[in-house]
């Protein structure tokens, strides 16, 4: 499950703008897929792991690089 390094705010904003364009076009699948490229904030990733489990969290496809940077590369298995 390799993730990109934590993104800059400019990179996240560019992805958000792209996602919002898909949303404006009514393309909800591409909107969701694109939004998942933005790193999930660590506190939300930690919550999701606790309540849904690590396996389910990974299956969602969210970018977990920020959580990995904050909690360490083995955080999902601890």
Structural class call reads mainly alpha
Number of strands: 0
* Integer count of domains: 1
Beta-strand content: under 5%
Total number of helical segments? 5
Radius of gyration: 13 Å
Uncertain stretches of 5 or more adjacent residues: none
- Helix/strand order: HHHHH
Instruction: Kindly report the average pLDDT value.
Output: 93
Describe the overall structure.
It is a single chain. The protein has 78 residues and is mainly alpha-helical. It has five helices and no strands. The chain has one domain. The protein is 63% helix and 0% strand. The longest helix is centred in the first third of the chain and has 16 residues. The relative contact order is 0.19.
Which helices and strands appear, and what pairs or packs with what?
Blueprint: H1 9-24, H2 28-35, H3 42-52, H4 54-60, H5 65-71
Keyword list:
78 residues; mainly alpha
In summary, what is this structure?
With 78 residues, this protein is mostly helical. The chain has one domain.
């Amino acid at each position: 499950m390799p993730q990109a390094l934590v993104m800059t705010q400019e990179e996240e904003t560019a992805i958000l703008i792209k996602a919002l364009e898909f949303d404006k076009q009514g393309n909800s699948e591409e909107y969701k897929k694109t939004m998942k490229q933005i790193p999930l904030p660590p506190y939300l990733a930690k919550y999701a792991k606790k309540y849904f489990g690590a396996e389910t969290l990974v299956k969602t496809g969210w970018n977990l690089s920020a959580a990995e940077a904050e909690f360490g590369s083995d955080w999902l298995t601890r």
